[in-house]
């Protein structure tokens, strides 16, 4: 489908060419990789080498760091009685990063720089670690109070959990 | 503002170079590519009707399964190729116009400015802007080429592109914020945004260390190759240089170590550790591959190997730092079948590093060598190709060198950053989903092509066996002792130290493992550990069958990758086989008919296809296999790549200056000294000599005998063990003994064989004749003089050496002087006194005797006229003791009690010359040498 649109380089001086946007493929690739990992892990309790290598290829240096976080079981899923959920990832320095369930955001500097500012990465290592932990079923579960959850999501209690 | 001045300067230069010559070359390109494009689109039409069936490339079942839909899509798709190709031509012709038309370029920047005004995340940098950017870049290249100030130009380039980036994203990254905003209008009229450039420079400074070094290396080697490379290659290189700011290069060199120190602590057994290992392996494979492809860039690449993707680039887009390239898959016709061409679409992902090297542009032809991975995504009509590290551009759509730059830059489109407001769906994973990632290994099992060891090994991932035959030459065959129940650790076998082990080791079966050191036509070495030998004496037979022959490796598994540092001994053997005797093959240059071992190749071909050997390899693979894993090919005779062990005389060996090296020689074993009674379980020290050391007048000062240590790790055949156990001197061949720090050692890869003393004795010499070349019959092969000449004991005597000595007894070690009875029949010391009588009973030979032999031990201190200030303690042999004591018996009655000896009578006696073995040498506080008299 996608290659049927020659990206509008025919009329190069017309402003409307800007509206022709290319479709994003990388998120789909990432999604499929996660599904593959999940599937394989459910069946064999292992991640084969080629999936690891593929992860590395798609996510770059992030993959290694994220796997290290997975190894250390650094991802916790916080649940409050109200039913809200959020992820907390304990970084290598011990700092806690709160990430959201429904969208991609991480307060870490790498996310701000690599993903937001330069658009050079899909995810930061923390979000990647969340996906991997979810796929492998290695997410720690923890219940917090509604109050705490609201503080977390409000961004005021990120550090002192 | 100095920076401002610089920029201005470089722009002035650009103005100078603006006019005609450049323009005409642009037009040339336009014409040429139009021809090409029509050709290629015609080609794509041809391919439309072909089927998918003949493709061995993508192993992905899904893609095969969806074949009909793929074919259905081909028609519109290839139509679009045509139109897009035509568009490009129009574009290019247009550039030629706009380049000389200043008004137009102003218009261009208007468009740019408009686009900048759009919210940053919405901004879509499209193709129209590209031709001019690249054009100005081409100009800059030219100018920097001529004004000899490439560094300055690079600098200004860099800062400008940084500023542009800031303008584009409205985010200030560098510290020259205010300046750039001041200058903004000026810049935008003069020079459009150069997005591409920003990416490259950002990439260089941002990425992780280790890969940085790789790139460094490749750049460096590219410079070296300059004279051989085509102009377009040079421009690619120059471009990389110009885009890389000097300072970040410096940083780049530092980072790998830093990050290595900081980061490499992963949880053991964890995923990260595993990936790290995989990554290292992949990195070295990539660097090796790249090194080899750079070594001969002009070579046409081989596509006959299975798994090579031949792709024509249709469209390039950039996403999160990666390049996504829509490609048409050209299936190369299989050998002999010309018609089976077909095409399909794939989406290829290139990581930044690869993309920076390839600079993919529409209509380029790119080869991707396995291993690569294919990912099928639900709802996507084409497969995604991942892990494309081994990629090479074989055809650039635009020929003229200077403009390949321009073309490369215009090609990649950039889209909006992806939507962050929605997470990836994981929960949707149903159990019915198939895992759709598939890795294409280096080669498929059915292949007949000759691949290199490296390809075969790096390509298999880690899972299992190398499913492919690899043609190699067997350089050495040897055996190693198998330590108890741990076949993997055979590289450093420990001598099993079981005190009550059966001293008769040869009787224990299956205790040695057959090993071969193989080398492929590209120079890579591997050690293949094969089955346990049922009998050690089979080794010569395998030597005869395999050594020096071209063999196919089949069904092997990778055990370990070993490096020079980890396995110095093995590499001393490899070093002795380096450089290869015949030129090595270049992996980029294999063809179907090529046989790496074919020696009758025309010399012209050889010069094209071979490459210089370079430094000795720094790693090799440890493989495991069965007996059937090594299969000699039909080729008669020895492979030209085989480097047989060169036989030396001991004199050559002793006088060589090389620190560690492997030596092969035939020598007479004068004396053996076992650490333990069971030969083969511990070290055995041998004193060797050969005719070259026994000449009456040596050409150069040299020792008459040489000490050699047979380490426990050296497997010995039963005939060798037998010869070592017997007291008689024997002649042996030593293959690949190591000389380490002046000491000869027989280690893992060394092979000892017994030679017949008489050359006519066929029974013993057959195996030797096979394993060692005829040159071993050294010209100076005479018989040894009798008695053998020994060095007189000197101050620089070393332990485990032989010497002759004579002197005067100046002292007796009375504490260690004693005598004991021994059986007069068998010599056993295991005697019992029979109850009630004075007779002895020998438990060994079960006989009674009246008068047992008396054995004596006596250590004396000698004073040697040539050695002053030196204590010599000699343990004497029975017969010398007897002669010394003969006169010393104080009272010699026939009585029952042994009367004892008088020390005074012994002192002052002269002994010698004795043949002695040096046991201990202590140099501090004073020279003290412990010797043992021996019988030769």
Automatic annotation (TrEMBL), chain A:
<keyword id="KW-0862">Zinc</keyword>
<dbReference type="GO" id="GO:0008270">
    <property type="term" value="F:zinc ion binding"/>
</dbReference>
<keyword id="KW-0863">Zinc-finger</keyword>
<dbReference type="GO" id="GO:0097196">
    <property type="term" value="C:Shu complex"/>
</dbReference>
<keyword id="KW-0479">Metal-binding</keyword>
<protein>
    <submittedName>
        <fullName>Zinc finger SWIM domain-containing protein 7</fullName>
    </submittedName>
</protein>
<dbReference type="Pfam" id="PF04434">
    <property type="entry name" value="SWIM"/>
</dbReference>
<dbReference type="InterPro" id="IPR007527">
    <property type="entry name" value="Znf_SWIM"/>
</dbReference>
<dbReference type="GO" id="GO:0000724">
    <property type="term" value="P:double-strand break repair via homologous recombination"/>
</dbReference>
<feature type="domain" description="SWIM-type">
    <location>
        <begin position="97"/>
        <end position="135"/>
    </location>
</feature>
From TrEMBL, chain B:
<dbReference type="GO" id="GO:0005654">
    <property type="term" value="C:nucleoplasm"/>
</dbReference>
<feature type="compositionally biased region" description="Acidic residues">
    <location>
        <begin position="154"/>
        <end position="180"/>
    </location>
</feature>
<feature type="region of interest" description="Disordered">
    <location>
        <begin position="146"/>
        <end position="198"/>
    </location>
</feature>
<dbReference type="Pfam" id="PF14951">
    <property type="entry name" value="DUF4503"/>
</dbReference>
<dbReference type="GO" id="GO:0000724">
    <property type="term" value="P:double-strand break repair via homologous recombination"/>
</dbReference>
<dbReference type="GO" id="GO:0070202">
    <property type="term" value="P:regulation of establishment of protein localization to chromosome"/>
</dbReference>
<dbReference type="InterPro" id="IPR028032">
    <property type="entry name" value="DUF4503"/>
</dbReference>
<feature type="domain" description="DUF4502">
    <location>
        <begin position="5"/>
        <end position="375"/>
    </location>
</feature>
<dbReference type="Pfam" id="PF14950">
    <property type="entry name" value="DUF4502"/>
</dbReference>
<dbReference type="InterPro" id="IPR028026">
    <property type="entry name" value="DUF4502"/>
</dbReference>
<feature type="compositionally biased region" description="Basic and acidic residues">
    <location>
        <begin position="248"/>
        <end position="259"/>
    </location>
</feature>
<dbReference type="GO" id="GO:0000228">
    <property type="term" value="C:nuclear chromosome"/>
</dbReference>
<protein>
    <submittedName>
        <fullName>DNA repair-scaffolding protein isoform X1</fullName>
    </submittedName>
</protein>
<dbReference type="InterPro" id="IPR053054">
    <property type="entry name" value="DNA_repair-scaffolding"/>
</dbReference>
<feature type="region of interest" description="Disordered">
    <location>
        <begin position="246"/>
        <end position="266"/>
    </location>
</feature>
<feature type="domain" description="DUF4503">
    <location>
        <begin position="519"/>
        <end position="936"/>
    </location>
</feature>
């Amino acid at each position: 489908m996608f290659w049927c649109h020659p990206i509008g380089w025919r009329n190069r001086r017309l402003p409307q060419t800007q509206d022709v946007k290319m479709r994003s493929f990388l998120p789909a690739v990432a999604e499929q990789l996660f599904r593959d990992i999940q599937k394989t892990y459910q069946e064999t309790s292992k991640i084969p080498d080629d999936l690891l290598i593929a992860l590395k290829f798609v996510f770059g240096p992030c993959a290694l760091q994220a796997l290290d976080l997975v190894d250390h079981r650094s991802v916790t899923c916080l649940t409050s009685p109200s039913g809200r959920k959020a992820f907390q990832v304990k970084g290598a320095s011990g700092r806690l990063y709160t990430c959201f369930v429904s969208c991609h955001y991480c307060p870490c500097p790498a996310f701000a720089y690599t993903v937001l500012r330069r658009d050079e990465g899909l995810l930061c290592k923390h979000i990647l670690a969340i996906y991997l932990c979810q796929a492998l079923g290695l997410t720690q579960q923890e219940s917090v109070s509604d109050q705490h959850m609201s503080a977390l999501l409000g961004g005021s209690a990120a550090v002192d959990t | 503002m100095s920076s401002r001045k610089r920029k201005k300067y470089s722009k002035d230069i650009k103005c100078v170079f603006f006019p005609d010559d450049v323009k005409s070359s642009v037009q040339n390109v336009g014409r040429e590519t139009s021809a090409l494009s029509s050709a290629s689109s015609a080609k794509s039409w041809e391919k439309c009707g072909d089927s998918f069936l003949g493709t061995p490339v993508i192993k992905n079942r899904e893609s095969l399964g969806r074949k009909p839909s793929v074919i259905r899509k081909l028609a519109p798709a290839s139509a679009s190729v045509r139109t897009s190709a035509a568009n490009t031509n129009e574009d290019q012709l247009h550039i030629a116009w706009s380049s000389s038309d200043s008004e137009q370029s102003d218009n261009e920047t208007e468009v740019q400015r408009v686009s900048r005004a759009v919210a940053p995340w919405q901004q879509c940098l499209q193709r129209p802007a590209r031709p001019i950017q690249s054009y100005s870049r081409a100009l800059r290249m030219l100018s920097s080429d001529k004004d000899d100030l490439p560094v300055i130009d690079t600098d200004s380039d860099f800062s400008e592109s940084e500023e542009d980036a800031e303008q584009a994203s409205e985010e200030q990254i560098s510290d020259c914020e205010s300046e750039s905003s001041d200058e903004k209008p000026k810049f935008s009229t003069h020079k459009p945004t150069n997005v591409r450039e920003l990416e490259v420079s950002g990439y260089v400074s941002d990425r992780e260390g280790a890969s940085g070094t790789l790139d460094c290396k490749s750049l460096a080697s590219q410079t070296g190759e300059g004279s051989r490379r085509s102009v377009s290659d040079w421009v690619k290189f120059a471009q990389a240089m110009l885009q890389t700011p000097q300072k970040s290069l410096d940083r780049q060199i530092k980072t790998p170590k830093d990050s290595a120190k900081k980061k490499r602590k992963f949880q053991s057994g964890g995923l990260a550790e595993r990936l790290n290992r995989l990554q290292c392996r992949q990195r070295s494979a990539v660097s090796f591959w790249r090194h080899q492809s750079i070594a001969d860039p002009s070579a046409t690449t081989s596509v006959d190997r299975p798994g090579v993707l031949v792709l024509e680039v249709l469209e390039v887009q950039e996403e999160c730092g990666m390049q996504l390239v829509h490609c048409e898959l050209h299936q190369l016709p299989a050998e002999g079948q010309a018609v089976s061409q077909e095409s399909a679409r794939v989406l290829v992902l290139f990581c930044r590093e690869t993309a920076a090297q390839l600079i993919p542009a529409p209509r380029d032809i790119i080869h991707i060598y396995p291993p690569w991975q294919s990912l099928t995504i639900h709802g996507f009509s084409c497969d995604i190709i991942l892990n494309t590290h081994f990629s090479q551009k074989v055809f650039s759509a635009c020929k003229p060198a200077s403009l390949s730059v321009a073309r490369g830059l215009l090609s990649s489109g950039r889209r909006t950053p992806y939507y962050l407001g929605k997470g990836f769906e994981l929960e949707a994973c149903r159990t019915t989903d198939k895992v759709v990632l598939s890795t294409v290994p280096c080669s498929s099992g059915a292949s007949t092509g000759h691949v290199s060891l490296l390809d075969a090994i790096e390509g298999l991932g880690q899972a299992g066996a190398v499913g492919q035959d690899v043609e190699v030459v067997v350089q050495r065959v040897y055996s190693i002792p198998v330590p108890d129940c741990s076949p993997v650790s055979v590289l450093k076998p420990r001598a099993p130290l079981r005190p009550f082990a059966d001293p008769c080791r040869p009787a224990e079966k299956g205790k040695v493992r057959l090993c071969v050191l193989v080398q492929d036509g590209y120079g890579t070495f591997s050690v293949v550990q094969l089955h346990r030998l049922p009998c050690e004496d089979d080794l010569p037979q395998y030597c005869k069958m395999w050594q020096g022959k071209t063999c196919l490796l089949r069904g092997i598994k990778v055990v370990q990758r070993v490096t020079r540092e980890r396995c110095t001994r093995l590499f001393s053997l490899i070093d002795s086989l380096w450089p290869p005797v015949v030129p090595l093959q270049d992996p980029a240059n294999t063809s179907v008919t090529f046989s790496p071992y074919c020696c009758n190749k025309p010399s012209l071909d050889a010069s094209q296809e071979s490459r210089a050997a370079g430094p000795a390899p720094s790693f090799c693979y440890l493989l495991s296999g069965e007996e059937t894993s090594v299969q000699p090919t039909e080729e008669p005779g020895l492979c030209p790549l085989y480097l047989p062990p060169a036989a030396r005389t001991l004199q050559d060996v002793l006088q060589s200056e090389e620190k560690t090296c492997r030596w092969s020689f035939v020598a007479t074993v004068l004396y053996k000294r076992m650490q333990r009674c069971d030969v083969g379980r511990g070290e055995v020290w041998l004193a060797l000599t050969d005719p070259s050391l026994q000449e009456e007048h040596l050409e150069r000062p040299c020792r008459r005998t040489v000490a050699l240590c047979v380490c426990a790790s050296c497997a010995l055949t039963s005939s060798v063990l037998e010869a070592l156990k017997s007291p008689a001197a024997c002649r042996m061949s030593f293959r690949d003994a190591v000389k380490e720090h002046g000491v000869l050692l027989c280690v893992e890869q060394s092979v000892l064989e017994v030679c017949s003393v008489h050359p006519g004795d066929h029974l013993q010499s057959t195996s030797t004749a096979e394993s060692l070349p005829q040159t071993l019959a050294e010209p100076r092969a005479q018989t040894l003089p009798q008695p053998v000449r020994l060095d007189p004991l000197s101050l620089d005597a070393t332990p485990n050496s032989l010497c002759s000595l004579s002197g005067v007894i100046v002292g007796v070690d009375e504490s260690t002087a004693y005598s004991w009875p021994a059986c007069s029949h068998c010599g056993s010391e295991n005697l019992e006194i029979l109850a009630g009588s004075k007779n002895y009973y020998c438990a060994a030979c079960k006989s009674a005797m009246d008068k047992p032999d008396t054995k004596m031990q006596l250590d004396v201190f000698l004073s040697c006229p040539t050695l002053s200030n030196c204590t010599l303690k000699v343990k004497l042999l029975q017969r010398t003791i007897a002669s010394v004591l003969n006169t010393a018996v104080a009272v010699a009655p026939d009585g029952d009690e042994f009367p004892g000896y008088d020390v005074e009578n012994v002192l002052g006696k002269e002994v010698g010359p004795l043949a002695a073995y040096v046991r201990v040498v202590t140099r501090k506080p004073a020279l003290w040498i412990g010797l043992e008299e021996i019988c030769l």
